[in-house]
Amino acid sequence: MARSDVKNRLHACTTVLALLLAISLNACVTPANITSPDGRLVTISLLGTNDVHGALIARPGRGGLVTFSGYVAALRDARAADGGGVLLIDAGDMWQGTLESNLSEGAAVVDAYNALGYTAVAIGNHEFDFGPAGPKPIPETDADDPQGSLKLRATEAEFPLLAANLIDTSTGQPVTWPNVRPSTMVELEGIKIGIIGVMTKNALVTTIAANTVGLRIAPLAQTIIDEAQKLRDKGAALVIVTAHAGSQCENFDDPLDISSCDLSGEIMRVASELPPGLVNHIFAGHVHQKIAHIVNGVSITSSYSNARLFGRVDFTLDRATHGIRNRHVYPPQWICAFVIEQSGLCASADDNLESIVVARYENQIIVPIETVAAIAARVAEQVAEKKARKLGVYLDTAITLDGEPDTALGHLMVNAMLQSNDADVSMHNVSGGIRANLPQGELIYGSVFNMFPFDNRVVILELSGAELRQVIAHQVPRQKRRAGIAGMRVVITCDNNAMDVTMMLDDGREVLDGDRIRVVVNDFLVFGGDDLLTPITPHGGFEFSNDLPLVRDVLVRWFSEQDGPLRAEQFLGPENRRWNIPDPLPAACAF
Asked: Which of 105-114, 167-176, 343-352, 489-498 is predicted least confidently?
């Protein structure tokens, strides 16, 4: 393709929506399906997304729903040509995570999912994050419905939200909210397909607990078995599970080779407990990793997060008997608008234009669905000014989560919170509680929002030294998921497997059991999130004020008050090391 042609193609696509740049991709895959001249065989393609987190718009390394819509359209055309069909399914955490989505509490993502033609989605833990419909992040009076925002989004969806193991504690049965159900049955090209939705056993401790009152999670495997049998009894030829629960694999050369997979991961254990032949496929998520493998006869796909990739499996069935004749599990497919011609990798803004060509899928050029592009363009315009607001500080280097658990960005986060509040110690769930790195250059509000999109409030607790010691001891075995700390240094020793916890404040004082220590955290952690404070949470919960600001607003103010440029190195080095733990930690070491 000539240089001028590439430029024209780039210009044409950006006039539809200037959102399709700087994305990363592996080579596109052209499928090979079984066909029959008499039309007896039919191919059903299942496409799956997970943990989209509001990613309507393309950004570096993340393809976005707009670009993804072009892949969906190409595959639908291919199946229409051979008499097959396509189902589009999501494994949860759809809308929390970008300003474009959060501004409407996920309504824009529901609009985009409607336009994309999703068949069904699972409810994930972050679907609860917005709490009551409207500006309150958590209920403040008895009149506030803790799940009000989620229920409102469900009524707007043209697809069912599935939650078979989300149990209403007042009835002991799955929730019966409008357009929320345990499973659904669809018929495509004469084939009945049942779809079940479940969520991780940890769902209610990985969102704000105040928004999940009156709910509990039933065991995944038994829930799936019970619901799948009902669907089979109703004639389902395929049973699909969309599960907001996950694991990970590293090698994708052969879906039957599971040697690179974490078989202890939640969804792997669930799949291994299912009776053979009851469930055909699982779309997984939650942990933001990749899977495209077959475990216990069940194919499983999962595709990172933020609409960077999608999963796909094709089933070829006999129209007469509805028996499965073939199954093809594809490696996770990167989403991009343009690729480097020689390598097939996704093109970035820095690549030589001579080598860039428009991405193709199923032998078609990727062209976004216009209605999806229009939705994204509308919300992008609404937030553009707010995202671009400069905070008055320059980052000489990117500040990232590289090197967990001691990371520059994690240390910056807890330092900023400590310096901004009247407290002795700051703690934050930096792994999972920070969602994006801060890029080099002039810092803007949009980058801070991407880093911390949650509407969590600052909370200051006064703890005894003994209580703080319990919290720290509970964190020790968590390795890479240990909380970030500012204001004190922790030293762990193990003598005859007895754990000793020494805590030294930055002013040199050792924290003794009888001391009173002011600790700044956030309301997610106070309500039991990430299991940080659960060892000391009193019956009935902590008492705290709702009058303190949002964590994100505190961060924005802290950045705006910095005198000079910031560098990652400022937050690294021995003086910033907060956890000092034997390596390896003896397995039997206990507090």
From this structure: 343-352
